[in-house]
Amino acid sequence: MGSEPIERLVPHYSFLGLPVRQEAFNDSRAVILPVPYDGTTTYRTGTREGPRAILQASRELELFDEETCTEAYREGIFTVGELGVTVASPRDMVERVRRAGEFLLSHSKLPVLLGGEHLLSLGMIQAVVEKFRNLTILHLDAHADLREEYQGSAYSNACVMRHALKRAPLVQVGIRSLSADEYDVIKARNIPCFFAHQLSAKNGWREVVGRLGPEVYISIDLDVFDPSCMPAVGTPEPGGMTWQEVTALLREVARDRQVVGFDVMELLPIPHLAAPDFLAARLVYKLLSYIFLDKKRTAC
pTM of the prediction? Predict the structure, then answer.
């Protein structure tokens, strides 16, 4: 990616249908990177179709956000073409994402990764942690993803946060499916983990935000949502978070910390069911609206 001119990276669909000319890249604060890969998926495959579904759905979004009273697209949101996929190994895909992330960060862009399977997040985390030394990873997911290996491979979407933990502190939210070994890792490493069954008892999100450092990378597996509002994931788990809970947390984080990048992963589109695709697209735009919002503003 780093050696290709932007004109060769024109996607089939851009986020919100925004322009993809060179000058649009130069003027954009955020850059969307779609990566259609699901090589280590073990249950329901198809998350490789997720990035394109999000981009398609985004073209139907209203550009005005009623909660922040802003139009985030005016800050510049550019979409590059889908990152090329290799079937050589999952590790090679992680490396490709890392190089793409480094390219975006070298141009002072806010990277927004669309997956695809969650393993890809590791590449972006590797890129971001090299630039932001006070980074904390905020991980929203149904699954802990802390296995040392899964089905004989250390490079699996079930292991992504085990790798990430070697590079930066980790805070987990919404977890409700994990192995005994993963639970032992959480306790042994003293990882702040806010299990889904605990969240309703929380008084707001201040405790979560308080565990974060000044710079935050947000990694969102869409199965953090309850299947009643997000059924289009590979491994749906009951008892998840609502739209209001997730967005309330994200707004708190964006208001009090510097979000230096984020990803939205694991959308598995369901034919003829547009609502999950639309939720994922709206989530991307909502989080950008929070990030771009002047931190001195408290309301519309």
Answer: 0.94
